[in-house]
Amino acid sequence: MEGITKLVDKQGWGIIEDGSNPTLYSLAQCMNDLSHTDCLLCFTEARTKLPRCIPSVSARVHLDGCFLRWDNYSFYQESIDDKLDRRVCNTSAASTEDYLKLEFTSKAKEVIANVTSIASKDGFAVAESKRGVVSVYALAQCWKTVNSTGCQMCLEKAAKEVNQCLPGREGRALNTGCYLRYSTEMFYSDGELKKDDNGFLTPAVIVAIVVAGIAFIMLSIFGGCLAYKQFVKMKKERKSLGRLSTSVSKSNLNFKYETLEKATDFFNPSRKLGQGGAGSVFKGTLPDGKDVAVKRLFFNTRQWVDEFFNEGTLPDGKDVAVKRLFFNTRQWVDEFFNEVNLISGIKHKNLVQLLGCSIEGPESLLVYEYVVNKSLDHVLFADFGLARDFAPDKSHLSTGIAGTLGYMAPEYLVRGQLTEKADVYSFGVLLLEIVCGRKNTVFTPESGSVLQTVWKHYKSNSLPESIDPALRGDFPITEASNVLQVGLLCTQASVSIRPSMSQVLQMLTDREYTIPLPMQPPFLNASVMNPDSSTMSKSASTRAMDTSKSYSMSSSPSAPSTVEINQAR
After folding, report:
1. Is the omega angle on the peptide bond into residue 55 within 30 degrees of 0, that is, cis?
2. Structure-model confidence comparison of residues 402 and 34, the more confident one
3. For the chain, give me the number of helices (H) and strands (E)?
4. CB of 196 closer than 8 Å to CB of 181
5. Which listed site, 52, 314, 356, 469, has its alpha carbon 20 to 30 Å from 335?
6. Confidence (pLDDT) at 91
7. 59 HSE (CA, 13 A, CB side)
């Protein structure tokens, strides 16, 4: 899924084909009205629901902000499927008065017809009607891989389906090739969309979008030229590094590049053992039969790029793990070697010892000891090497995402920003899990995640109901409630209002300490993370991460699996 994640991050949708015998075909797409941040949040939420469909060979996840599907055949041109297309209705009537029901039904059908007609041509449309007592809003979108004929067929079927929800307040059609929704409440983002009286984009806005696109292309070309010049400059700087200093070249921490290259069989990918959330793990055997393990990581920082790890064996038969790095200046060579010299002296039973490095060849390598107790070749996590280095004037570090969903802080999950409060968030999740006796990564249709359950009980002044029932009430209720409240404080979405770890420690150990009240719910919400984005509608920012109140699944190994989500508010 990493390949399609990059496509969604870049353009809001993507298709990818993986493997062979069988080949896995995947499609992911966000609704056009979502911001980049909300799109990533929605896609991340959709990914967490895919394990429900295992071991089926196919799966579909419909969220109000995005769609995700995989299958063992090329389905990209499919538009309708009578077996798996679904309709989700809110049976609550828009009004209790009969004449208002008739008025609403007529108006809603008109809006649905309008939005279907426009979306059939353009692939996406929103419409609204504020006439009368009750307003109507609608959104329709086809998937990028469906042609115009298939899009029209899909939306026409979707319109017939949602019309059967009337006079209900809300209706959705979750079809194979498209999505259609109407509601009495504004649910899509219109911060940057100016519409005419019928709720569609005006020609002036279309022209403005085209002009903005051309300007973006020009800026991209200009940026590409600058990047190329920078690349040439970096290449010249690398050539100017020359030979290493005598102290470095004679150090017992310095390994020859050719030695490590041969030890790793030239970084051969055929030795791959498996793949985790942070990278791939490889295994190798030295001439004396000793095994080595290597984990390939993909991180980006302003200082260096950790491309990947590989296994290796030295001529004396010693197993090592090799980390490949790229450097730009002599200053970084000196600082890097000083870092290696310092860290290589650290020895601890829970740490992988750094044995040395190679910085003479075309790429720089780190050499680690090989842990033979099978801990590393079964579970490799974290960065397998040097700690991340914060620049003196920086408060956070932007890096690639690697970790377990459900425990990562929102700012790290969405933007890759690793702040000092990220661990506070993870600790808060752990606190709630311990007290509730549930894992945060386990969802239930009735209550959702642990964080959602605790917040719901907190708002209803019934926190003790969240506590692990296995305790059978044998615990001090006040202390347990205080721990839950501390967990909610730690898992607030905004970094600035989370407590520090020292404050958390004081809350948990000082009985006289007055624990503050949480200011935000512990849900990933883009509008909370971006306080300045006041123009973003509340419904749009919550669409990405709303927890489903109803879903259905088909997960037999021989039949496609489906998860349809009804995002109730």
Report:
1. yes
2. 34
3. 16, 20
4. no
5. 314
6. 80
7. 21
